[in-house]
C-alpha cells in the first residue's frame, strides 16, 4: 500500500491553482512538481504554491519518476493528448471535466489506462462534496420517494473574448462542454447514464460555439431531466430533484454547500458542507492506495456514456469542432 501519494500538476492556470491549494488539505499527499507551457510560468506557479519542481514542458513532468498521479487541467481540446502522455509514462491520471472532446477520444483514454493498469478518473468534483453526497444519501434512503424529474441550470455571462477558451471552437469552447456537463452529470447520477431520448436547442454565437443551450433528457422509466447551460446568460444555478414524496433543492449545485429536503407535512431538513477539490483528490488518492484503477463513484463507463450524450446533443444543435 502506498502511504504517501505524490502528485504532479499539468497546467499552471487558474483551475490548477485552486486544485493545488485544496490538495494540501489532504493528509498523506504531496505536490512534487508542476508543468506549464513555459518554464517561467511553471516557476511562478511553483513559487506561489510552494512546489519543489517546475517544468517548462509537459513531457518532463510525465517522465518524473517521483510522481504517482498527475492532475490534467489544460483546455478541453488537449485533455486526451495530455492524459495519454501521462498514462504512457506510467502515471495515474485525474483529468478535468469534460473528460475529452468526444466519445472517440474517451474510448482511447480508457483503453490506454486499461492496458497500462493505471487509475483514471474524470474530475467531476461536485460529486464528492459533502452537501451533494448528503442529498444523494437522502435519495438512497427513500426520503423523497421515486425520483421522477430534475431541473438544473448553470449559466453565467462571460466577457466576450473570441480568442479565449470559452468562445474559441479550436479550444472546444461553448456552454455544453464547459458547464453543461454539470447538470448532465447530475442527471446521469440520478437516472442512469444513458437517456432513451434526447432533445436540444441552442444559440450559436459569432464564433460558432453554443452560447446557451436547452436540453431535455428522457429516461427509460419516463424520468425527465430539464437542463440548461450558458456562457452569455446568467442563470440561477439551481438544481431541483423532484420525487413522488418530496423534493431536494441544491443552490449552486455544481459546488454545493447546501442541500434542502422538503416533504409534505414535515419540517425541511438542511445539510451544510464545504465545497472543494480536496474531496475528489482524496477519492483518487485512496483508490490508488487500494490498487484500484477507477473510482466506484465516478466510473469510466459513466464518463463515456455522458460524453456520448454530449456528442448527441452537439449533433442535434449542429456544433462540430475543428478536426472532428
Automatic annotation (TrEMBL):
Q: Does the keyword Oxidoreductase apply?
A: yes
* Annotated TM spans: none
Where does the GFO/IDH/MocA-like oxidoreductase domain start and stop, copy by copy?
132-248
- What UniProt keywords are attached to this protein's entry? Oxidoreductase
UniProt superkingdom? Bacteria
Q: Name one GO molecular function term.
A: oxidoreductase activity
What range(s) does the Gfo/Idh/MocA-like oxidoreductase N-terminal domain occupy? 6-121
What family, per the record? Belongs to the Gfo/Idh/MocA family.
Q: What is this protein called?
A: Predicted dehydrogenase
Its source organism is Nitrosomonas ureae
Amino acid at each position: 500500500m502506498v502511504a504517501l501519494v505524490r502528485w504532479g500538476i499539468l497546467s499552471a492556470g487558474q483551475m490548477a491553482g485552486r486544485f493545488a491549494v485544496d490538495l494540501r488539505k489532504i493528509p498523506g499527499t504531496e505536490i512534487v512538481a508542476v508543468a506549464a507551457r513555459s518554464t517561467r510560468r511553471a516557476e511562478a506557479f511553483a513559487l506561489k504554491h510552494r512546489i519543489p519542481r517546475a517544468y517548462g514542458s509537459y513531457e518532463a513532468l510525465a517522465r518524473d519518476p517521483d510522481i504517482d498521479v498527475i492532475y490534467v487541467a489544460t483546455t478541453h481540446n488537449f485533455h486526451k493528448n495530455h492524459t495519454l502522455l501521462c498514462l504512457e509514462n506510467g502515471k495515474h491520471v485525474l483529468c478535468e471535466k469534460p473528460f475529452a472532446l468526444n466519445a472517440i477520444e474517451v474510448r482511447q483514454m480508457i483503453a490506454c489506462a486499461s492496458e497500462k493498469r493505471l487509475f483514471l478518473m474524470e474530475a467531476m468534483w461536485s460529486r464528492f462534496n459533502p452537501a451533494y453526497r448528503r442529498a444523494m444519501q437522502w435519495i438512497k434512503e427513500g426520503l423523497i420517494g421515486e425520483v421522477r424529474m430534475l431541473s438544473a441550470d448553470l449559466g453565467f455571462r462571460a466577457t466576450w473574448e473570441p480568442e479565449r477558451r470559452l468562445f474559441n471552437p479550436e479550444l472546444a469552447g461553448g456552454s455544453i462542454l464547459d458547464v453543461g456537463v454539470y447538470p448532465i452529470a447530475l442527471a446521469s447520477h440520478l437516472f442512469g447514464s444513458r437517456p432513451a431520448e434526447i432533445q436540444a436547442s441552442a444559440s450559436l454565437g459569432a464564433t460558432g460555439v453554443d452560447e446557451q443551450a436547452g436540453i431535455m433528457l428522457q429516461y427509460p422509466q419516463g424520468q425527465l431531466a430539464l437542463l440548461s447551460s450558458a456562457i452569455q446568460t446568467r442563470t440561477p444555478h439551481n438544481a431541483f430533484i423532484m420525487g413522488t414524496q418530496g423534493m431536494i433543492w441544491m443552490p449552486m449545485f455544481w459546488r454545493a454547500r447546501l442541500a434542502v429536503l422538503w416533504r409534505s407535512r414535515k419540517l425541511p431538513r438542511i445539510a451544510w458542507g464545504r465545497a472543494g477539490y480536496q474531496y475528489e483528490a482524496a477519492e483518487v488518492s485512496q483508490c490508488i492506495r487500494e490498487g484500484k484503477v477507477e473510482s466506484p463513484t465516478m466510473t469510466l463507463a459513466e464518463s463515456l456514456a455522458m460524453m456520448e450524450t454530449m456528442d448527441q446533443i452537439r449533433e442535434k444543435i449542429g456544433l462540430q469542432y475543428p478536426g472532428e
